[in-house]
Design brief:
Strand order of the largest sheet: 3-2-1-4-8
Largest sheet: 5 strands, mixed
CATH architecture: Alpha-Beta Complex
Oligomer: single chain
CATH class: Alpha Beta
Radius of gyration: 20 Å
Distance between the termini: 65 Å
Order of helices and strands: EHEHEHEEHEHEEHHEHHHH
């Protein structure tokens, strides 16, 4: 089996059905691992019927929502593919999306590769015209490029070898958000690169499931910045940002780490002074 695709579900059956149809239309030679995080809207019954019809489907049923990190790790445990994909259930795919992403892995330093991300926030695009929209509006001179931000985990491919080297998702992140950036940072720290493929896209309805959950967003953000001290400074976009991320090891070596700790102390003192002046 070349490709194992892991998809989490938690209700929103109407989106899952569209995704499944798109997946089987535009993907070859794969197994699909569906991890249901306690759906109550008929999704579990739908997945059971789907499993009976398709011999390449495995389903894991959780009695409660164990979150993005834990659910994907469950899928990794039973995945058999050389490549492993993490795909949301609220996306639609593009012809040859995997084949184009696979080409990027000829670069042995590639850890994660994602197609270009199209969503309803783009002007005049929707689920019916996203492929035409991509053809018309997205023209790149390079077939792929390094990009931390554009390598999004709504639809991303990695390899078994990468996971063996850097580990799985950090399950200290609860529900959703920041666990994907954490994974990318760990890859970069281990000498890998992350990419976006410019020749293919996927359409993402966006936060269909996560916006309904108790995300523990602030706790996840705190954990992320504690693990990756300079992450909050890497808010600029493009190649410059990527190079800063590539240098993260140097950032944590004297004297920069100490300077960063002094900065944090200064910010804390400033905030306390401002609170005191307001009183």
């Amino acid at each position: 089996m070349k490709l194992s695709i892991i998809t989490l579900t938690c209700n929103k059956i109407e989106y899952t059905k569209k995704y499944i149809q798109s997946l089987y239309t535009y993907t070859k030679d794969f197994e699909l691992i569906l991890v249901d995080n306690g759906s109550t809207d008929g999704t579990a019954e739908y997945l059971k019927q789907l499993q009976k019809k398709q011999n390449n489907i495995k389903v894991i049923f959780n009695s409660e929502n164990l979150g993005f990190a834990k659910g994907n790790n469950q899928g990794i445990e039973i995945a058999q593919g050389e490549y492993i994909g993490f795909l949301n259930n609220d996306i639609l795919l593009y012809p040859n999306w995997f084949e184009e992403c696979e080409k990027v892995f000829k670069n042995k330093k590639a850890a994660f590769v994602a197609p270009r991300h199209i969503n309803p926030h783009y002007h005049l695009t929707n689920e019916k015209d996203y492929i035409k929209f991509f053809h018309k509006n997205f023209n790149y001179t390079k077939s792929f490029e390094k990009s931390f931000d554009e390598c999004v985990f709504s639809c991303v491919i990695t390899t078994r070898n990468v996971i063996d080297n850097i580990g799985k998702f950090d399950e200290n992140y609860k529900q959703a958000f920041f666990e994907d950036n954490d994974f990318k940072y760990r890859a970069i720290n281990s000498g890998y690169d992350v990419y976006v493929a410019n020749t293919v896209c996927f359409f993402h309805f966006g936060s269909v499931t996560s916006k309904t959950l108790n995300q523990e967003f602030e706790n996840n953000r705190k954990l992320y910045y504690e693990k990756h001290l300079f992450a909050e400074y890497l808010s600029i976009s493009g190649a410059e940002k990527y190079q800063l991320q590539r240098m993260v090891k140097q950032f944590q070596i004297f004297p920069l780490k100490q300077l960063y700790e002094i900065h944090l102390l200064a910010v804390k003192i400033k905030n306390r002074l401002q609170k005191g002046l307001k009183k």
